Amino acid sequence: MLTSLNVAAREYHVSKNGSDDADGSMGHPFKTIMAASRVARAGDTITVHEGTYREWVDPKYGGINDLNRILYRAADGVKVIITGSEVIKGWKKAGEGVWKVILNNAMFGDYNPYREIIGGDWFLDLGRVHHTGEVYLNGKSFYEIDSLEKIFNPQPLKGAQDQEGSVYQWYCKSDSKTTTVWANFHNADPNKELVEINARPAVFYPKKTGINYITVRGFILKQAATNWAPPTAEQIGLIGPHWSKGWIIENNTISDSKSSGISLGADRMIGQNYSSVYKTKSGHISQLETVFNAIKNGWSKETVGSHIVRNNEIFNCEQTGICGDLGAIFSQIYGNHIYNIYVKRQWGGFEMAGIKLHAPIDVLIKNNCVHNASKGIWIDWEAQGIRITGNLLYDNSWMDLHIEVSHGPQIIDNNCFLSNLNLWNLSTGSAFINNMFTGQICKGTENERFTPYHYPHSTKVAGIMTTQGGDDRYLNNIFIKTPAPSYDIFEKANRPKRKKGTMDYGLGIYNDYPAIMPSSDYFISELSEVKLPVKAANNVYINGAIPYKNGLNELVDKQPDTNIHIEEKSDGIYLIIKIDKDVFGHKIKIINSPDLGEALVPEVAFENPEGTPVLFDTDYFNQKRALGNNSMPGPFISLKPGENEIKLWPK
């Protein structure tokens, strides 16, 4: 049957010069992508030719398996843009630099971004209204302001990274018939330049769930009026599978989502912002309920997840580059370049990061570059069986990696953590192997939130537990103390002081944690605050980074200056670092899954999704490590004594 399906597969074409009354052949292409979507079936290809397509692609059908999917692709060698915006002309002068336009609401259909208010669970509006709309001048987005008066005397916005750009501001007012938009274009004439506004809530996103096995390849996808996407609501991204299985999103450029770029997240059947709407339960209880609602509605490997997100460039999104609660299970996210996430800082909340996943069961996050985000990678709730490997994280303003209220096992290996704060570990059951940490590390506990853990490689819940801290393994890492600005990350991240924890360079923050279970009658009580054991071995501490007092075979090198820094050159991103020769005498063994044991709470081994052991025998560049006791700590086997210049990205 697979053979007959493949033989019968068709290729449909879409062109700006086509017609939706055509048959979609090369000689008679469709005009819109949606026209092709209505006729394409499993095994078919939709090839979109050069041009800008202003439509919401809402796929009507999916494939039936990995061999018979529906492929949406940009034609070879041309630029194909799909955008959620519309070009706006007819601006009228309203003051010095200020122009206004009055729009008929009919142009927006049933979704008017200038009446749609951003909000939801864990969103902080900072005392003002925000809309999902946006104004763009020659592709660059403006800043919504909260009063018309401010438009005429624009001031740089506090918190915005681009202070000069933040004076390009807009304001809107809508009634039942019209929407008026004012914008300060300064010296530009909006009737002579390209001015666009958000008009659609998504660019490539099915309205129905269960549209499986779709590939989206090679497009420029931009400018969507997405709303806030918390884990307790439907998470709509600029592009996403909407609670489906087996999507491949690859080789695209994705930008200017009001909230999230790619969403692999939940559907509203799990709940829809119940905590903030009804205010009868805490957010954590509402989120716990979503897990059981998802299970009741068939949440499993057979029905959702197993997506591949690879080799995309994602930027200029104000919540996340990639998000996903529950729907990202068993997925692979690799080779993506994610940057400029949450840089306007016009609102607050607890969901902003380059990659933010809840319940990332057996997920692989590999070989991504994430920088200039609030948090680089944030994994939250039920991060069981996840592996984070070979990633480059730097210049992230809050932290590189946040692991929150999960119980493991979590594998974090061969990563370069190069921001001021590298790690906030508010979980248990992690293994950190062959990483480089050049900033501070924070650990903490959470004894008020019970979060689920699962049976191995399954969505079935095995129990719930609080987070005591500990049960972590730090093996073969390099910790470097570098001069960095001192600031209170907990204030920056709007976190209560009760979760402050301990923060420093190296592993001295664990000195009040035991190295082994204290006795045979030791047990984990869900109400206790007992500290779980920590294992540290074969690590290197440089320039004042503090070791764990119970560490084994640790090297403390008092090298005064590593001269470590990042250089962004025309051909890529480079690490400059000076390493003392004494470090190279510290030979260690390659780590294997049996060295890690099991995560204590779920009693699950550190292993591959198929249940096989992991052998950590390669480095950041996938180069083979020396066998026996001749391996090097850290992510690079190519390090040499003295000055090193290493091209980190692209690999």
Automatic annotation (TrEMBL):
Q: Pfam family of this protein, just one?
A: Glyco_hydro_120_ins
Q: Which GO terms describe its molecular function?
A: carbon-oxygen lyase activity, acting on polysaccharides
Concerning SUPFAM superfamilies, the annotation shows: Pectin lyase-like (SSF51126)
Q: Where is the DUF1565 domain?
A: 17-55
Q: Which residues form the Right handed beta helix domain?
A: 303-436
Compartments, as annotated in UniProt: Secreted
Domain Glycoside hydrolase 120 insertion, first and last residues per copy: 88-197
Q: Name one GO cellular component term.
A: extracellular region
Q: Gene3D superfamilies from the xrefs?
A: Golgi alpha-mannosidase II, Single-stranded right-handed beta-helix, Pectin lyase-like
Q: Which InterPro entries match?
A: Beta_helix, DUF1565, Glyco_hydro_120_ins, Glyco_hydro_b, Pectin_lyas_fold, Pectin_lyase_fold/virulence, Polysaccharide_Lyase_9
Please provide the record's keywords in A-Z order.
Answer: Secreted, Signal
Query: What name has this protein been given in UniProt?
Result: DUF1565 domain-containing protein
Q: Which organism is it from?
A: Ginsengibacter hankyongi
What does the organism's lineage look like at the top? Bacteria, Pseudomonadati, Bacteroidota, Chitinophagia, Chitinophagales
